[in-house]
Design goal:
4-stranded parallel sheet; alpha/beta; Rossmann fold; 2 domains
């Protein structure tokens, strides 16, 4: 009787374990690790778009995929997240934002790595993109963004535009240099307002709003995560904010749809996993941006939204 009871107990324990751990079930055909730099609307949308498209394409092929999504929280922790993926030997890594992409590319040369929400792959890798890396870019035409600000606000020579970005993000510097050259060609004064810690942001934005006719924010993840601070201060001082990524605090933008950006990345991932394409067959993709005006914010400053 004792042996029977012991056997029953073992079976109960095993059954409970199988309910708790997927290892007792049939494993998915593919495993994908997602490293997202931090939480904010644009990156969240890109991740969701990636997952939705990936699962849809994999399921169409009659296969299954297991997705492990991890948010690093800050750049220095991306390596820790990526190392867990390489230790598990996942089939593919999606890196959402430049620090995540760099961490993934430094950690493996054999696992396919797809980036998204990355502005310039060539600059990120000093002109030599690793063979196992491709993905989508959130780059937008900076000349058209600058022209939108000039035309919308009627900026003239001598007016001052502040560019707000975090010095820890290399892509932000690329964008600053681009718009600086474009504005200065029109005689508009450009000043960089930079920070490395978010504790500096409130004082910095207050200073920028007091000195500039408008504020431009590139696709900077740290600013985007804290853009309510930027919006609140600038609205109090009646200074319009233009961003490269859109968002609720932006008066007008020429920006991409980050959910769609993620979807395109997910389709790439499915092609690689299903063996339809190799990483080397897939070029870095950019999306066509769309013009968006925030009519409520524009109305507060008397900015006329074009009829078209």
């Amino acid at each position: 009787m004792k042996k029977i009871l012991s056997l029953i107990l073992v079976l109960v324990i095993c059954a409970g374990a199988c309910l708790s751990f997927t290892s007792c079930e049939d494993k998915a055909d593919f495993t994908v690790g997602i490293c997202q730099l931090m939480e904010h609307d644009s990156l969240d949308q890109a991740t969701q778009g990636f997952i939705d498209a990936l699962k849809e394409e994999i399921e169409k092929a009659g296969k299954t995929v297991s997705v492990d999504t991890q948010v690093a929280g800050e750049a220095t922790l991306c390596t820790t997240v990526i190392n867990t993926f390489t230790a598990k030997n996942v089939d593919l890594i999606m890196a959402n934002a430049t620090p995540a992409l760099l961490a993934a590319a430094n950690a493996t040369t054999t696992i396919p790595v797809l980036g998204t929400s990355v502005t310039d792959y060539n600059d990120t890798f000093s002109g030599s993109i690793p063979a196992n890396v491709t993905g989508t870019s959130d780059a937008v035409p900076f000349d058209e963004q600058a022209k939108m600000m000039i035309d919308t606000l009627g900026l003239i020579s001598g007016d001052k535009v502040g560019v707000l970005y975090c010095t820890n993000e290399s892509n932000s510097l690329i964008q600053y240099n681009a718009v600086k050259a474009l504005f200065e060609a029109e005689g508009i004064v450009v000043e960089a307002y930079t920070f490395s810690e978010t504790t500096e942001l409130q004082a910095l934005v207050t200073s920028a709003a007091g000195a500039c006719k408008a504020i431009y924010v590139p696709s900077d993840n740290t600013v985007a995560q804290n853009d309510t601070v930027v919006g609140t201060i600038c609205q109090e001082k009646n200074v319009p904010v233009f961003t490269s990524y859109g968002g609720a605090v932006c008066y007008a933008s020429l920006a991409i749809d980050y959910y769609q950006l993620g979807k395109e990345t997910g389709k790439m991932a499915a092609d690689i996993l299903l063996g339809n394409k190799a990483v080397s067959d897939i070029d870095i993709m950019t999306l066509t941006p769309t013009v968006v005006y925030n009519k409520e914010l524009c109305a507060k400053l008397g900015i006329t939204v074009p009829e078209n």
